[in-house]
Amino acid sequence: MPIARRLRAPLVLPCDPQCSVLRDAVVDIDERGRIAHCGSRAQAPEVGSDTVVLDCAGMLLPGLVNAHAHSPMTLLRGMGGDLPLLRWLREVVWPAESELTPEDIRAGMRLGSLEMLRSGVTTSSEMYFSGESVAEAVLEVGSRAVIAPAVIAAPDLGELGGWRRMVADISSWIDADGLRFGPGERIELAYGPHSAYTLPPEALRAIGEQARERGALVHTHVAETAEEDVEQRRAYGSVPRMLAELGVLDGRVLAAHGVHLDEEDVRVLAESGAGVAHCPGSNAKLASGTAGLTELLEAGVPVGLGTDGPSSNDDLDLWEEIQLAGMFARLRTGDATALGSAAALLAATRGGARALYRDDIGALESGRWADVVHVDTDNPAFVCGVDTTDERILSNLVWAAGAECVRDVWVAGEPVLRDGEPTTVERAEVQETARSAAKRIEG
Predict the structure, then answer these.
(1) What's the DSSP call for residue 34?
(2) Are 64 and 120 in contact, with CB atoms under 8 Å apart?
(3) Residue 401, Cβ neighbours under 10 Å: how many?
(4) pLDDT at 443
(5) How far is 296 from 174, CA to CA, in rounded Å?
(6) CATH number of the domain that residue 31 is part of
């Protein structure tokens, strides 16, 4: 059960819309594990004698939100790493995934959750098989996840290809446990139709209907590569227009990648309120292209950042995605001011929450879950320490710092990482279990 805490630090970045930098500030956490107050220390309310007070050198900020991931694929890291997307999926990934057991998926997800916590990612939006195994791993490590069990009709996956059964299983799970459950509502359930090119239109329509009935998110790949959706573009104009015609965009939708979108596609997504998960690292590695981030943001589309799978990226480090998002936006537009430090940081926090239709994570604001990250500024990245301008603090954090600066993490007010090490699992055991599973899959 969470206890009341006050975290004090020289710097606090609440990730409000202005991306403010607060000096000599506090973050108060109530007994429910939610933010009670975030502001200057001088104006902070009195706290009770039972409140645990902790001084944190450096800065505090909200946990990062990984808006699109397949984290159990830590076990497949390095397999087929030099192939383009569709060959990589059909020749390497899908055959390997057909051999995975629920216990393998749990082992891969535990490793992925641990890797993310150590880089300050507290929430990930996961699309994968065996959702129960993914949930068990997340709860064990202590992180937070939006879990969209994958729905796919691919012959290479054998018995996993029965999409009707997959959809029925997700609906039954939501009906039994609700959309959110676990300590601090750490788990949210969603539907994960893989893509328009791996499912028939009737499947997408059915998923949209069942998701709307339950208020659930639909998390799907959209326009990742130029050649994947030729048939859908011929029949509907594009995948976003296809999803709109089938009624899928009438509910909550997260479109992963969105690399190959035209102006009409962006308009359709913006009018529907759908979110986009921008995955610059994976898209670059697979030579898929880079999404029009600035165009999406200017149209009002909620955009978060994602790592994609750790076998196509090949890590789960969202700090790297923050930097790549900024650099690729500048290259794409030829404008060195296209995406500044503040906007890049907000995409990984507040923006990711918006893309997931969540107003309870992604910022240090009263009422949101106390998912908090402590970043150590005693590091060459922060050459002036904390005694410099707000602009330079943000610049140092975004362009020079990284996962190595993360020291402590709290999720729903509970400490889950202390001085770089997990508090709920043994790192050596998690790594060894995953290593054994990966070696067996490799054969």
Answers:
(1) B
(2) yes
(3) 22
(4) 74
(5) 31
(6) 2.30.40.10
Q: Are residues 55 and 68 in the same domain?
A: no
For residue 314, is the peptide bond before it cis, meaning its omega torsion is within 30 degrees of 0?
A: yes
Residue 204 counted as domain residue: yes
Q: Report residue 114 CA to chain centroid gap.
A: 14
Alpha-carbon distance of 235 to 412, in angstroms, equals: 46
Using one digit for the tens of pLDDT, what is the confidence trace for 218-238?
A: 999 999 999 999 999 999 999
Domains identified in the chain, total number: 2
Burial of 99 from C-beta contacts in 10 A (0-12 / 13-18 / 19+): exposed
Residues 208 and 261 in one domain: yes
Residue 428 lies in a domain: no
Q: Same structural domain for residues 21 and 143?
A: no
* CB neighbours of residue 389 within 10 Å: 10
pLDDT digits (tens, 9 = 90+) for 226-270: 999 999 999 999 999 999 999 999 999 999 999 999 999 999 999
Give the helix/strand (H/E) hosting 102: helix 102-117
- Residue 437 inside a domain? The answer is no
Tokens of 410: 């709290």
CATH number at residue 200: 3.20.20.140
The C-alpha atoms of residue 302 and residue 285 are separated, in whole angstroms, by 24
Q: Report yes or no on 168 lying in a domain.
A: yes
CB 235 within 8 A of CB 316: no
Query: Domain check: are 338 and 293 in the same one?
Result: yes
Nearest in space to 163 (alpha carbons), one of 206, 220, 221, 203: 203
37 with 87, same domain? no
CB of 17 within 8 A of CB of 350? yes
Residues 114 and 253 in one domain: yes
Task: Using alpha carbons, select from 101, 147, 84, 115 the residue that is nearest to residue 307.
Answer: 115
| Identity at 300, one-letter amino acid code | G
Is the same domain home to 29 and 76? no
* Domain that residue 382 falls in: 3-62+361-422
Residue 31, phi then psi, degrees to nearest 5: -65, -15
**CA–CA gap between residue 175 and residue 249 (Å, rounded):** 22
In the DSSP assignment, the letter for residue 239 is H
Assign 254 to helix, strand or coil: strand
Together in a domain, 156 and 231: yes
**Do residues 28 and 44 lie in contact, with contact meaning Cβ atoms separated by under 8 Å?**
yes
What's the pLDDT tens digit per position in 298-355?
999 999 999 999 988 899 999 999 999 999 999 999 999 999 999 999 999 999 999 9
